[in-house]
Amino acid sequence: YFTYQLQKQFRPIRAGVQTITPALVKATLPTQVDAQGRALRTEKFVSSSAPLTLDIRPVPSAGQPASFSGAIGRFQVEVDANPKILRVGDPLSVTLTVRGEGLLETVHPPALEQQERLAQDFKVQADPPAVKTDSDAKTYTYTLRPRHTGIREVPPIEMAYFDPDSQRFQIARSASVPLRVD
Q1: H helices then E strands: how many in the chain?
Q2: Which value, to the nearest 10 degrees, does the dihedral of the CA atoms of residues 168, 104, 110, 16 take?
Q3: Region for 166 from its dihedrals, namely left if φ exceeds 0, alpha if ψ lies in -120 to 50, beta otherwise
Q4: pLDDT the model gives residue 1
Q5: 25 neighbors 46 (Cβ within 8 angstroms)
Q6: Is 152 helix (H, G, I), strand (E, B) or coil?
Q7: 96: exposed, middle or buried (C-beta count within 10 Å: 0-12, 13-18, 19+)?
Q8: What is the pLDDT of residue 30?
């Protein structure tokens, strides 16, 4: 005999009770095979699964870090800056890339003005960042301006995410980006 298993992965996009409708399968399957596994006789087959009802819980609000911006899954953040040598008040493009396993659709731009170390040294432009979404990453490009001389880096940037496996908030931190402000 043969065993067939069909799988489909679903990712919920909102909380609440969700019903997955029955799956209907129609196939022509072998009922007798020769020594090489070739079908000698086949039968038409139709089957249906039962509907599946799921209760999708919302992300908890208790204990939600300030840097949480909707990311659900497991993520990493990478940061780059350009130019690396600049003067006080010059524009600095900071690119933050979010990668990982989860729904990129729920990830919103992290509020860099709430990153304490970053806000001490840089003015974050009020305009929303430019956004680029790929199949495996979401990239935000911000414009910052250094507030004073002597800055030697863009400090690590934090982004909180909710890990549904551990049912806890986690913090992803980028590496710092070296630069020089004259």
Answers
A1: 1, 15
A2: -50
A3: alpha
A4: 65
A5: yes
A6: coil
A7: buried
A8: 86
CB-neighbour burial class of residue 98 (10 A; exposed 0-12, middle 13-18, buried 19+): buried
Instruction: State the pLDDT confidence band at 103, using cuts at 50, 70 and 90.
Output: confident
On the question of a cis peptide bond just before residue 51, with omega within 30 degrees of 0, the verdict is no
Go through 144-172 and write b for each residue having 16 or more CB atoms within 10 A of its CB, e for each that does not.
Answer: bbbeeeebeebbbbbbbbbbeeeeebeeb
Q: Which two tokens stand for residue 111?
A: 């509020």
Strands 85-86 and 180-181: parallel
- Helix (H/G/I), strand (E/B), else coil: 105: helix
Residue written as token pair 């086949």:
42
CA dist., res. 125 & res. 1, Å (int): 65
Q: Two tokens at 26?
A: 């129609």
Bond preceding residue 83 cis, omega within 30 of 0: yes
CB 45 within 8 A of CB 28: yes
**pLDDT for the residue numbered 110:** 94
